[in-house]
Write a structure and sequence with these properties.
Helix content: 55-70%
Number of domains: 3
Structural class: mainly alpha
Number of strands: 0
Order of helices and strands: HHHHHHHHHHH
Shape: elongated
Largest sheet: none
Number of helices: 11
Amino acid sequence: MPSPHPPEFRRHAVELARQGDKPLVRLAEDLGISRSCLQKWLQEDGADPRPGTAGQLAELRRGIRQLRRDNDILQRAAHLALGKRPAGVIYGLIRALAADHVPVATACRVLRVSTSGYYEWLKRPESPRELRDGHLMELIRQIHADSRGSYGSPRVHAYLRLRLGEKVNHKRIERLMREAGLRGAHSPKGLREFAGRDEGAGPIPGGHPEREV
């Protein structure tokens, strides 16, 4: 009984078959094996045994499997991260994604909310709390950007309270920054230095004037 072909030979044969430069019959003859043997190796390797399409279809199938796995992971992560959030938070995220040209239907499907519910949410007027959050979020983004991303919620809150005169709870700033994905570098010393300044220290970087509530 002849010895089995070594693994290196089998891998080389499968790779040649995947390239699709030759029909399987011709390639098998050149390699000194039967076509059925080559087809078996291709099937065991997950490649398509049809000539001329083996490499392309095998790569396509692997890509589809990978995309399905990635999509499943993203859906589970979104469900865990947003499952207990109010609907308005999720809809707000979808609106931001839509502004970045992500299809609304796709965002709703991944985040597991209805498209009709999202559009109904868009139609209703914002509550005073939502308007206030939106106003604060604009200021937070500006302060965070002017600090080059170094300010966390304590320092942003200090800016809002001491320099802009905004009467707002620190927990609210922390929540808004968390929902927006904004974080800062830890610098307790810098925070103490800033908190010790008086309210007349001047406008925040970026030109925001001081204001009264």
